Amino acid sequence: MGPVSPVFAGRAAELAALRAAHDRARAGEAAAVLVAAEAGGGKSRLVEEFSRDVRAVTGGCLDLGAASLPYAPFTAILRRLGRDAVTALMPAAALPELARLMPALSAAAPPPDDGTGQMRLFEHVLTLAERLGAREPVVLVVEDAHWADASTRDLLSFLLRNPPRPGVLLVVTFRPEDPATRAPFAELARLPHVTRLDLPPLTAAEVADQMRGILGAADHAAVRDVHARCGGNPLFVETLVAHPGEALPGTLRDLLLARVDRLPEPTRAALRAASAAGDRVGHALLAAVTGRTDAELSEALRPAVEHGLLTAGGDGYAFRHALIRDAVHDALLPGERTGLHRRYAETIERAPALSDAPFGALAVHWEGCGDPAKALAAAWRAAGERQAATAYAEQLTLLERVLALWDDVPGAAELTGRTRLRVLEAAAEAASAAGDPRRGLPLVRQALDGTDPARSPVEAARLLALRGMLRGFQGHDGELDDLREAARLAAASPPDRVKRLAHLASRLLVHGAMDEGGRLGREALELAAALDPAPRTGGLEFIVAAAAARDGDGDTGPLERLLSRGLGAGERVRVLNTLAHARLNTGRAAEALALTGEGLAVAEDAGLAHSTGLAPAVNQVEALYRLGRWDEAAELLARRLDRHHGPAVRLQMMIWRIALLAARGTGPEPDPEALAVPLGAGPPQTVLPLAQMIVEWRLAEEDRPAARTTADAVLRHPRLAVQPCYLWPLLETIARAGGTDPSEIAALAARTPAATPVAAAHKAAVTALTGGPAGWDAVIRTWERLDLPYPLAQALFDAACADLARGDRASAAERLDRAAGIAARLGAAPLARRISERARRAGLSGPAGGPLTARESEVVRLLARGRSNREIAEELVISPKTASVHVSNILAKLGVASRGEAAAAARDRGLA
């Protein structure tokens, strides 16, 4: 009998948790499980036991470095499903993208990567998982995620944050002690639908069960000794009991090698050869390397499989545990190791089809046998493979390997067909595609140091544009300087000048420089029209149209005309979203909501919901917030904020989460990363709304010093006034916070254009709040006409305060009453408290002047539904006596004598 126990010892609670998660997935809920344990801790055995009774498809991550395929577990899952099953489930347009993982799916080339190629691939994998689960519940298992390459980790994170449903359970195993996975999996485990199972060591009783399964019996002394020595690690138990009655070596490595040493020499030789390939090796490749026939290799490896050292599956073999492979490989003599790597390299070079990733494998094996020239050439070609698979992080790693070998290879330029400068540029481009400026900026800096702009202006322009892009990832102010210089240097080459101008113009719009962006966009269009062949100009036409719209302050006609043309899905979504943005800034939130809905529908239909569809999702949240539909906005944020997307979109989502917290007084605390954003630099479209909402939140928390500190920081922004649509609401909020010199705010307001009714309303409010004429009636009429309830309630409150200051108590009472009703309907608890406190201080009471508190607003809504005091208490989790006190206060404030009259009055005033 081999040392693998037929008895599944322990783990009853963990097995039950997996089955419960599977039940949730079958019921249509989102569900995922992370299984964590140390090496040999029983992760795979637990998942294997769970998978016996469910439909499971498994893929594993391999510790092969450059020799492994990117997205290896997902490639394995697709292969296990089979080409026919995948093509039956997925639309034809998706197959060229999925062929990056499984080339047999389509002979057609995937569309060119416009920067969204990786996200499109992720969306197709998500769609495939959902369609699999819709037919029949399925468990997707990813083993050994601690070895996942960066692209695989990104895809895993995407699937965990966007859980496929119904009927899909994602199970991921990993080692928690690995530094690369500890933090990301700790974060993912906090998602509400994710269960994390940390497998504890086996107890002595469970070790006894495992030993009896292996040996048939286990006496108490042996159990106690094994449990003490193995620490409850299942693999260690199996290793220890493989030597019954013998003196046992002391280290785990020695224990594992002792198991190998008991095998026949042909088996040991085959294991040694297999160890040089990594954790897994194909049968045909291993046969070629060892020089054995298929039958001879099978016969040699059978004892290793029977003794639990190897597992056979598919077309090859895998070490049952990485610790076994490490022990065998580490025991190789230097000459043996070098010789095996050379044989692998020569074999794969003769027959590349024997390896899943031939060039990556060649890079590893040629370097392993000390041939840097061949290792460099293979790493260069492997980098091209990774780029085609949109595995940019792995492409970058391979290009860094090429650069590290460069000085040791005299003919490196001939082997790659590139100069070292061009390889540096390619590596920096990969870093940009991977969103990794930390690694990319030093690379592009080296390339720029070796480039003379006077002799090679086009190359220098390209590198400066690349550095500008990488700086943009970091919010670096030098981004636009680099892009302007790049456009200047490209002047002698019209095709390059068009590219550089288009890039610069698009970034200028992000930074609010509409005039310059529009002018450069038109210049690029004119240059492009003179080129033969003429390039596609849809992107430039969009830039010019967006600049003309000026955030809604200008002419949206060009954008509207673009919609009438035959746009691609991505272009159409961008136009719809930019129109929605313009509508929001002119106060037409309902129209904006409709446009974002249309944009999201287009993105969903095109499979772009998680890439192109992110921007309209942000504007949809804003539209719901503006319309006072806060529950819907919060629900959309809860679904979207924790999804897989870049930091820029995530920060936009955080802005509206802080806005809801400030307005409602309850909700998740602001993310530390949002509060850490420097407010004196960066795109105004992000920094100014963020500062506004932080100030509003601080005011809601009654922390005026912190609110004023934030205000002072953002007022130092060098481009404060380039986009008035963001400045005006910020100025009103800062004026309301007080502390900042009113004359400074008034002066800034005086020189800022107010081209829309929304801007004019904000300007009037700022003027009144900083000591100027109180034009509150016009402000109130604007918000009434636009049907924007929250700014209306704020304006009513501010106007009531102004009324009280000049002694008009009747007008103040009426406005406070209206404001209180709106605040109650919205659930704007901080504003409701301010209204109530101001009314109390003014001595206003009765039906015209007694605003309800936030709790009284909750009670009156239940009262209007006919709830008794006890029912109100149960729903609000308060005592019946407290509910009775609230009801009495409500009757007094509304000036009524009965609960029925109170309910009618509440409905009449819009309080219920």
Molecular structure report:
- The protein is mainly alpha-helical.
- 65% of the residues lie in helices and 4% in strands.
- The protein contains 48 helices and eight strands.
- Helix 14 crosses helix 17.
- The longest helix has 19 residues.
- It is globular and about 105 Å long.
- About 1% of the residues have low confidence.
Could you write a compact summary of the structure shown?
With 912 residues, the chain is mainly alpha-helical. 65% of the residues lie in helices and 4% in strands.
Q: How do the strands and helices of this protein lay out in sequence?
A:
Layout: H1 12-26, E1 32-36, H2 43-51, E2 56-60, H3 72-81, H4 83-89, H5 95-98, H6 117-135, E3 138-143, H7 150-161, E4 168-174, H8 179-188, E5 194-198, H9 204-215, H10 220-230, H11 234-241, H12 252-261, H13 265-275, E6 280-282, H14 283-290, H15 294-306, E7 310-313, E8 316-319, H16 322-330, H17 334-350, H18 358-368, H19 372-388, H20 392-406, H21 412-416, H22 420-433, H23 437-449, H24 457-473, H25 478-489, H26 494-510, H27 514-529, H28 538-549, H29 557-563, H30 569-585, H31 589-605, H32 614-626, H33 630-640, H34 647-664, H35 672-675, H36 684-700, H37 704-714, H38 724-737, H39 742-750, H40 757-769, H41 776-786, H42 789-805, H43 809-826, H44 829-842, H45 854-864, H46 869-876, H47 880-894, H48 899-908
Parallel strand pairs: 1-4, 1-5, 2-3, 3-4
Antiparallel strand pairs: 6-8, 7-8
